[in-house]
């Protein structure tokens, strides 16, 4: 039965969307004359609110008199078939004549001019150019120049005017909202040039009898310096609308010899409000080093996203061709939103690709980060040429809905076989599907359903099954027909002689096919039952029964109003599986990992310990249980964690299988019911690359049990981080300077360092403590050179170590004084292995006329890391500052004037004279007469002992 059914039980739902929708089975093919290069240029053309096809054939013969292979443009109305392509008569004249120096000569050469090599349209206007058109200059009868010429059709190909401003090089052209833009890469010695003029002014200035027609309001680029010769500016360009310019439209132009240029031609598109468009740049001959280190030409396309006005961001590394010499990227065309997912898609051609060089066109779908890495569809050229490659994809145009079915189409040229092919986009079906089974565990002892087999009825164990399908999309047919198929016990289908253990109750078959008809936007469900066969009919009692649902659009489903059948994406996972168990689970293995870190750093060995909890919550033992760990390519196994006594010690083996490295650790045989353990494994992650932002270990517990024999795969992810710890150190030698120095004599004739004053050396050391590397760092050093109008420092020398470039706003050692040789040795002494830059500021110090004063000389250094050599942006950009101080002490100086010898002698004589005068005065005062200590002779006699009387 078909009805909406809110199914109960276990449900799995997936969302599907289509992208593979260019109709390659029924393309519209337009053909031209053999050898005409029909398809060299292709373009969409809109008339009366409907699109047609324009095809350039630059080697076609026309009705122009006496012109060989002048080239032509064909008009192919949509819906009338390939036989209805007609030539547009842009120019029906032959080579025109003119008078030069009173001589009647042929002025132009239209044979082999390649008219139709470029064709562009806008509204009812067509622009077609002949890049090899020759014109004879007005001053030289004998010579002609390849100048190129273009014709413009207006009013629905009823009027044609010539526009040939470039008389100095090959022309490439474009047309945008009433303006013509021409590129002349041969101008100014192949510097290249761009011209632009409005359609109305070109028509107004045209007069068929004149060769040179000045156009009012024409703008053009000018000649540059001689070093821009051979730049080929304008060999490719496009309009680049941007909201940043309001009504102005800049150009993006490529000059192969110089970087990408953006030329704002202003104003070109007044009154517009364009969006922020992105940019693709191709290099069809890009070389890639392949096997054996040989360079192979593969081609490459770069994607730039405009995040802000006119600021292009390189969104992804690149898209590279898959075949050598295929010229991947020769043509690029925007497709619009081909798969209706909200992002624009792109077609990229490889005109020499394919097994037989028949040509390929790749369809890449867009997403928020740019373009997806792999194409969703590859268009293959169906023709071969015996004379030259078919060049399928040499010209491609898209983003136009020719059949008006709501999806953009693609136009591809193959001039090597003179064909142009239109691929229309098929409607896309977005599908949601679900499969439900209930219950998910069959007990053979519980029989609840009646099975009728002939005249016999028996009770069986059965399961309810239902599936639902819904579809939606834009411009779909009124009805959609799907085919759904359900298979029971799918794994037994692949086993020879195996018996399907489950059958559908109503058909007693293991497979059911059901046709479903849906209305767009509706949901249809179907429900049924299947039963378990008698246990004696099969041997496998343990493994689960897998039920699979796959579905597809019926190949005979109705087409839309434009004759196109809808399609589901070829990448759609249109198979849904569920499983039903026969018995209660014997074991239930659970796993919980954790780690001492959640990040790893580029440049580090990244030692880490991953601990985990394994537990069997089932009713039975898990036999031969083991932990299975898949190592990422960046990691190495170090051993068992033994630093914690609570951790279980494991036995692990390290294996490699099909370039997959894994660990197998024994958890027990059996791992008993209810058993739980903690264990740890040690790893290092030394081989990180900046192409991956995450490292992932995959853990799983496995056993030999038939039922629930393994746990879910548990990923453990570590973020890859770029981080560097950069420090700046600085020191002053000496840290204190005394002025003036001993025996120093001021002089203005400086010849050596010591003639100036005492030396100060500032040493700066920039150290990266890692773990990540730095590649571009700026260190700025600032020191005061003057103080109070007086010269303080004389910069003598800057010495560095490593890849260091220095610049200064002051001249170092302007008088070329002799410098001591000891500084070089000091440099090697101070710089360690981690030292990035060492700066020596060797600076003598001057007196500043401030005697007996102290001054502190302070120099400041700041560093900024501008770039780190990784695609991953750093978490923090290292920067810092350091101040180095030197104390300047002015000592009291000795006398500045020495005492003459004669003054010293005179001082001695004066001292001697003064001494003599003092002696004379003392003499006159009887200072030198000595008195007896005992008086007169009588006094002496009285003091004698009286010897007689005593006797």
From TrEMBL:
Signal peptide: none annotated. Coiled coil: none annotated. FG-GAP repeats lie at residues 21-85, 101-162, 314-373, 377-440. It is found in: Membrane. GO terms for cellular component: external side of plasma membrane; integrin complex. SUPFAM superfamilies: Integrin alpha N-terminal domain (SSF69318), Integrin domains (SSF69179). Pfam families: FG-GAP, Integrin_A_Ig_1, Integrin_A_Ig_2, Integrin_A_Ig_3. InterPro entries: FG-GAP, Int_alpha_beta-p, Integrin_alpha, Integrin_alpha_Ig-like_1, Integrin_alpha_Ig-like_2, Integrin_alpha_Ig-like_3, Integrin_alpha_N, Integrin_dom_sf. Keywords: Calcium, Cell adhesion, Disulfide bond, Glycoprotein, Integrin, Membrane, Metal-binding, Receptor, Repeat, Signal, Transmembrane, Transmembrane helix. Residues 425-580 form the Integrin alpha first immunoglubulin-like domain. This is Integrin, alpha 5 (fibronectin receptor, alpha polypeptide). It comes from Paramormyrops kingsleyae.
């Amino acid at each position: 039965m078909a009805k909406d059914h809110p199914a109960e039980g276990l449900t799995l739902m997936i969302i599907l969307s289509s992208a593979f929708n260019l109709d390659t089975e029924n393309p519209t093919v337009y053909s031209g004359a053999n050898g005409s290069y029909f398809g060299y240029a292709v373009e969409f053309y809109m008339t009366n609110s409907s699109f047609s096809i324009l095809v350039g054939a630059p080697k076609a013969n026309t009705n122009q008199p006496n012109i060989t292979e002048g080239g032509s443009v064909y008009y192919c109305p949509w819906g009338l078939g390939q036989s209805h392509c007609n030539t547009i008569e842009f120019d029906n004249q032959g080579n025109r004549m003119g008078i030069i120096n009173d001589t009647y000569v042929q002025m132009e050469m239209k044979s082999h001019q390649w008219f139709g090599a470029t064709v562009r349209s806008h509204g009812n206007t067509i622009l077609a150019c002949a890049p090899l058109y020759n014109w004879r200059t007005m001053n030289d009868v004998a010579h002609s120049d390849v100048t190129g010429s273009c014709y413009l059709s207006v009013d629905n190909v009823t009027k044609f005017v010539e526009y040939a401003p470039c008389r100095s090089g090959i022309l490439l052209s474009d047309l945008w909202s009433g303006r013509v833009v021409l590129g002349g890469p041969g101008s100014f010695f192949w510097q290249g040039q761009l011209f632009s003029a409005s359609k109305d002014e070109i028509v107004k200035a045209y007069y068929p009898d004149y060769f040179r027609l000045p156009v009012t309001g024409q703008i053009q680029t000018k000649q540059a310096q001689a070093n821009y010769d051979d730049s080929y500016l304008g060999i490719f360009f496009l309009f680049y609308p941007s909201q940043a310019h309001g009504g102005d439209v800049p150009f993006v132009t490529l000059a192969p010899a110089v970087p990408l240029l953006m030329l704002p031609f202003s104003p070109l598109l007044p009154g517009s409000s364009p969006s922020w468009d992105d940019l693709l740049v191709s290099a069809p001959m890009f070389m890639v080093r392949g096997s054996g280190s040989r360079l192979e030409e593969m081609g490459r396309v770069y994607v730039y996203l405009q995040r802000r006005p006119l600021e292009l961001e390189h969104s992804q590394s690149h898209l590279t061709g898959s075949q050598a010499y295929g010229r991947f990227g020769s043509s690029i065309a925007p497709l619009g939103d081909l798969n209706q997912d909200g992002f624009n898609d792109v077609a990229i051609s490889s005109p020499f690709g394919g097994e037989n060089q028949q040509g390929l066109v790749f369809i890449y779908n867009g997403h928020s980060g740019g373009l997806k890495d792999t194409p969703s569809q590859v268009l293959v050229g169906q023709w071969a040429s015996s004379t030259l490659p078919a060049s399928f994809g040499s010209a491609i145009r898209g983003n136009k809905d020719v059949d008006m079915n709501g999806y953009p189409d693609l136009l591809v040229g193959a001039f090597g076989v003179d064909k142009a092919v239109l691929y229309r986009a098929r409607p896309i079906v977005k599908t949601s599907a679900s499969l439900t089974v209930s219950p998910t565990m069959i007990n053979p002892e519980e029989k609840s359903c009646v099975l009728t087999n002939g005249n016999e009825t028996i009770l069986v164990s059965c399961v309810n099954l239902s599936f639902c399908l819904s579809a939606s999309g834009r411009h779909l047919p009124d009805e959609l027909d799907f085919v759904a198929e359900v298979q029971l016990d799918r794994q037994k289908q692949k086993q020879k002689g195996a018996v399907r253990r489950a059958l559908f109750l109503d058909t007693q078959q293991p497979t059911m096919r059901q046709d479903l008809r849906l209305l767009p936007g509706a949901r249809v469900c179907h429900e049924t039952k299947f039963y378990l066969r008698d246990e004696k009919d099969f041997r496998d009692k343990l493994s689960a029964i897998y039920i699979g649902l796959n579905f597809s659009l019926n190949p005979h489903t109705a087409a839309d109003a434009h004759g196109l059948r809808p399609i589901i994406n070829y990448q759609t996972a249109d198979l849904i599986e569920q499983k039903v168990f026969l018995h209660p689970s014997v074991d239930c293995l659970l796993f919980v990992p954790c780690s001492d870190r959640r990040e790893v750093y580029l440049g580090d060995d990244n030692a880490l310990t991953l601990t985990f909890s394994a537990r069997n919550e089932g009713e039975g033992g898990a036999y031969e249980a083991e932990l299975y760990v898949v190592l990422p390519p960046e990691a190495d196994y170090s051993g068992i964690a033994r630093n914690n006594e609570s951790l279980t010690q494991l036995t692990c083996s390290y294996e490699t299988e099909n370039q997959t490295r894994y660990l197998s650790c024994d958890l027990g045989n059996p791992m008993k019911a209810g058993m739980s353990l903690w264990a740890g494994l040690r790893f290092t992650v030394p081989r990180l690359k900046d192409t991956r932002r995450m490292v992932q270990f995959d853990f799983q517990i496995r056993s030999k049990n038939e039922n629930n024999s393994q746990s879910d795969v548990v990923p453990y992810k570590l973020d890859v981080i770029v981080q560097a710890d950069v420090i700046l150190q600085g020191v002053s030698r000496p840290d204190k300077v005394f002025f003036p120095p001993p025996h120093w004599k001021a002089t203005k004739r400086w010849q050596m360092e010591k003639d100036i004053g005492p030396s100060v050396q500032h040493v700066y050391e920039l150290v990266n403590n890692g773990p990540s590397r730095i590649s571009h760092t700026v260190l700025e050093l600032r020191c005061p050179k003057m103080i109070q109008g007086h010269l303080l420092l004389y910069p003598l020398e800057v010495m560095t170590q490593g890849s260091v470039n220095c610049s200064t706003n002051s001249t170092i050692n302007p008088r070329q004084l002799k410098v001591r040789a000891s500084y070089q040795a000091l440099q090697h002494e101070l710089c360690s292995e981690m030292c990035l830059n060492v700066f020596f500021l060797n600076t003598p110090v001057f007196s500043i006329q401030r005697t007996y004063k102290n001054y502190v000389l302070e120099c400041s250094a700041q560093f900024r890391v501008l770039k780190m050599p990784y695609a991953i942006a750093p978490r923090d950009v290292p920067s810092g500052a350091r101040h180095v101080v030197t104390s300047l002490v002015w000592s009291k100086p000795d006398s500045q004037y020495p005492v003459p010898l004669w003054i010293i002698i005179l001082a001695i004589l004066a001292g001697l004279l003064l001494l003599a005068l003092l002696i004379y005065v003392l003499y006159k005062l009887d200072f030198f007469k000595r008195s007896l200590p005992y008086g007169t002779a009588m006094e002496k006699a009285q003091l004698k002992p009286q010897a007689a009387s005593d006797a």
